[in-house]
Amino acid sequence: MSTRRFAAPDDPALDQLYAEVAEADLQPLWTQEGLMPGAPPITDVAHLWKWKTLRGLAESSGSLVPIDRGGDRRVLSLSNPGLGGLPFATTTLWGAVQYLGPGEVAPAHHHTPAALRFVLEGEGVWTLVDGDPVSMSPGDLVLTPSWRWHEHHNPGDTPMLWFDGLDIPMVRALDAVFFEDGPDEMTNRAVDPVSSAEQWYAGAPGLVPVAGPGGAAAPPAHSPLLAYRWAGTDQALTAQLAATGRSDAAVRFTDPTSGRDVMPTLRCEMHRLLPGPRTPSTRRTGSSVWVTFRGAARAVVDGRAFELEAGDMLAVPSWTGFDLEAHEPTDLFRVCDTPVLEALGLYRENTLDRHQDVS
Ligand code: 1HN
Fold first, then answer.
1. Among 143, 168, 318, 355, which has the highest number of CB atoms less than 10 A from its own CB?
2. What is the whole-number distance in angstroms between the Cα of residue 271 and the centre of ligand 1?
3. Tens of pLDDT along 230-258?
4. From the CB of 98, is ligand 1 less than 6 Å away?
5. Is 149 inside a domain boundary?
């Protein structure tokens, strides 16, 4: 915080006051600038990571860097060029590509930051979440909520690559990051085709158990459903396009028991755009990471154009105008911090009168 001496030339008493105030670890508000800017001073920048680069470097890491205790996860984190070298995609979000090679296991651990996976490539991998084996396939969203044990297994002969989204910067800012390694012995079990979480909570749309597996225990702060399958997401988007006749559709992933976001800190959405008009340019508080699942589209962020293709990941900072235009049918996964802004009464959104010119 920059400080400005209140103009008072040759006033030894005032000089003395400022010296004593500083000595007492205090700062006068009247000398501070920038505390209440008219709008948030955004430091992270809109940035695009191309899949070609992400995939190539993840694969090279796969052949050069083993997974073992100590390393635990083969993850390349998106490091926003505006954040001075921090391994964060935006001010509030961690984003990354993770690579799990054939036959590999990423051992058990848990941490208070919440994590999600959006699968981009591969088959046959499963993640054990608090003892529940959850299989993973492209287009699936898999949750590992705060403090849930998790480990990843790839018994197959092809690698799997997925997007990791976590709330690490937020939890870190609150000084609430805790982490523990799990036991060394590996779980080795056949994977049920359907996780226990899905047996309980994905029986049929709109139906939840009268009494869940937790009995009368207080429900968790996160969705008890841990996997959202691509087939369901695709079906919902197709149905929404048919219902509206429009060229864009979007769905939000929710806790089926409450309708709330999947986890307290993170909102997840899937967007489908057909070639058609540019979406309205909107700016909102809080940041997002967009992950292209398929197709080709152009995003414009504060007048800068980014061409998105399958696998590409785009960081969109708070309070930046954002719109999309598809060149072909395009599906985009979005993770954002909106539940936190909403819970704190800080969420703002406005749609700009016109599209920003593209530089
Ligand atoms: C983590 O546990 C995973 O379990 C992925 O796959 C990324 C980034 C930072 C800290 C923990 C995982 C992570 C992570």
1. 143
2. 25
3. 999 999 999 999 999 999 999 999 999 99
4. yes
5. yes
